[in-house]
């Protein structure tokens, strides 16, 4: 986040243009880098790290805000594709204690989360550095620096007299191997196309180092959950490293908790059977129905990494959209993990703080309809249930749906005696018809008890017919802050 230019900076800064020769065009991240820092032949990502101080980072203050906004668990980035460990790493010299801010960021986050009663989690993305960083070995194809190598080929001996003297750039860039392909692929293919080792596949030393780094992270900070930015587990299916890490983590958790495993491992693109062993994660997407096992959406209010232009153009998700997204996910047995990217100095900007305060205001009224609830027999009703389900990874803006007040979502108390009916907006005319509670409803043919609106006191009137349970608000009832986004009707089931 130090350059405040959004995602994948450590890769994009080395790409002076697209690989499409038929349509070359400047890469704005590379252009920004050259203008701000200098050319990547002289000033690489290792040097960007050196400028990063996170001097205003206050995890205690931030965590208190996250908790007010409703967070029950907090996940911190332990390592990204840029291969920098953000903790006091025993096996990766390029870490945030040795370089950059000289702070144990994971340690600070962990202490703040636990002091606020939140479960603590970490995300691990460094399995991809082997291929992702190959562009650092390249050079400009044209211009005044044509064919001059970027700093991705530097070795430890080149650091004499430099600020990084004593460090080996190859521990960061992981590029002591031939280039695999001009056209990088996220997932290396398993089969080699030529005799001998396939350069797309990490060597054993890289695999061993990843294992040691991740196990060290687990043993040192005892996270309650680990998210791997991989399909299933890291390096699957061509290595069992990820599987061995998962086994160690589950056993480690059991040892900490008297034989009871409390560890959560998130995985993407899991089969139904795999979801019995790991928690299914849908990145920037969501399930289209109630899933039998708990699952998670992880998404962000803008970019995963801080992008100043998002702030300047008011490009964040709106708080009402986030609230409705949360409600929809919870109604389907899911959890929402929402990313709030921090600036290079370690702070959240005023628009991010305002969004979190809006969530806190909504939670002050409606939290009981979300936390410790369970899905009902159906997740909801209304126009949005008739549209194609949004599923899969990277649905982008589709994780924000065009809900209306006619769209209802359901959650229940653990004992099943309370139904929470959440209208995705303040109803025009102050009337809500809950068709799933009609007199002949297959979902609930039993009797209805008290019906009330969460929040400011309001005397509701109800009528149950063959069309549904019609709930009418007082004519002068005005929504409290947050209820414009979604309001909750609490229904006692007899």
Fold and architecture overview:
- This protein has 494 residues and is an alpha/beta fold.
- Helix content is 24%, strand content 17%.
- It contains twelve helices and 15 strands.
- Strands 1-2-3-4-5-6-7 form a seven-stranded parallel β-sheet.
- Helix 8 packs parallel to helix 9.
- It is elongated.
- The model has no long low-confidence stretch (mean pLDDT 92).
Comma- or semicolon-separated keywords:
five-stranded antiparallel β-sheet; 15 strands; 494 residues
Cα Rg: 25 Å
Order of helices and strands: HHHHEHEHHHEHEEEHHEHEEEEEEEE
Number of helices: 12
For the record, give the distance between the C-alpha atoms at the N and C termini, rounded to a whole number: 53 Å
Shape type: elongated
Q: Describe the sheet with the most strands.
A: 7 strands, parallel
The count of β-strands is 15
Helix content: 10-25%
Largest sheet strand order: 1-2-3-4-5-6-7
Broad structural category: alpha/beta
List unreliable stretches of 5+ residues: none
- Please tell me the overall pLDDT: 92
Beta-strand share of residues? 15-25%
Task: Please sum up the structure shown.
By secondary structure, the protein is α/β, with parallel strands linked by helices. The chain contains 12 helices and 15 strands.
């Amino acid at each position: 986040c130090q350059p405040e230019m959004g995602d994948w900076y450590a890769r994009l800064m080395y790409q002076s243009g697209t690989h499409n020769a038929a349509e070359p065009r400047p890469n704005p991240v590379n252009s920004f880098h050259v203008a701000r820092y200098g050319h990547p032949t002289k000033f690489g990502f290792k040097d960007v790290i050196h400028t990063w101080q996170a001097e205003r980072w206050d995890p205690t203050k931030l965590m208190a805000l996250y908790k007010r906004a409703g967070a029950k668990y907090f996940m911190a980035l332990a390592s990204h594709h840029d291969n920098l460990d953000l903790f006091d790493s025993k096996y990766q010299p390029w870490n945030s204690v040795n370089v950059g801010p000289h702070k144990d960021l994971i340690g600070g986050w962990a202490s703040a989360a636990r002091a606020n009663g939140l479960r603590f989690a970490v995300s691990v993305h460094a399995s991809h550095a082997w291929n992702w960083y190959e562009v650092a070995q390249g050079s400009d194809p044209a211009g005044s620096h044509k064919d001059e190598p970027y700093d991705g080929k530097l070795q430890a001996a080149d650091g004499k007299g430099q600020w990084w003297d004593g460090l080996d750039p190859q521990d960061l860039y992981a590029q002591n191997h031939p280039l695999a392909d001009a056209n990088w692929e996220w997932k290396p293919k398993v089969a080699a196309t030529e005799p001998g080792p396939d350069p797309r596949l990490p060597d054993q030393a890289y695999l061993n180092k990843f294992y040691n780094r991740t196990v060290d992270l687990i043993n040192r900070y005892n996270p309650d959950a680990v998210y791997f930015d991989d399909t299933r587990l890291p390096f699957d299916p061509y290595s069992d490293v990820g599987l061995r890490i998962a086994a160690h983590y589950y056993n480690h958790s059991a040892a900490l908790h008297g034989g009871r495993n409390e560890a959560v491992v998130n995985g993407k693109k899991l089969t139904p059977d795999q979801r019995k062993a790991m928690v299914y994660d849908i990145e920037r997407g969501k399930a289209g129905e109630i899933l039998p096992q708990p699952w998670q959406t992880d998404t962000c209010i803008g970019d995963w990494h801080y992008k100043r232009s998002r702030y300047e153009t008011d490009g964040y998700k709106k708080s009402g959209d986030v609230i409705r997204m949360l409600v929809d996910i919870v109604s389907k047995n899911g959890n929402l993990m929402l990313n709030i990217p921090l600036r290079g100095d370690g702070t959240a900007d005023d628009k991010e703080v305002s969004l979190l305060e809006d969530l806190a205001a909504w939670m002050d009224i409606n939290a009981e309809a979300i936390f410790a609830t369970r899905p009902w027999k159906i997740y909801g009703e209304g126009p949005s249930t008739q549209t194609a389900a949004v599923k899969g990874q990277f649905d982008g803006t589709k994780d924000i749906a065009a809900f209306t007040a006619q769209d209802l979502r359901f959650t229940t108390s653990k004992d099943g005696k309370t139904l929470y009916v959440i209208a995705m907006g303040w109803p025009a005319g102050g009337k809500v018809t809950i068709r799933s509670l009609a007199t002949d409803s297959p979902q609930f043919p039993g009797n209805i008890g008290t019906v009330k609106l969460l929040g400011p006191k309001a005397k509701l009137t109800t009528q149950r017919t063959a069309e549904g349970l019609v709930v009418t608000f007082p004519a002068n009832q005005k929504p409290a802050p947050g209820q414009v986004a979604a309001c909750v009707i609490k229904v006692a089931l007899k």
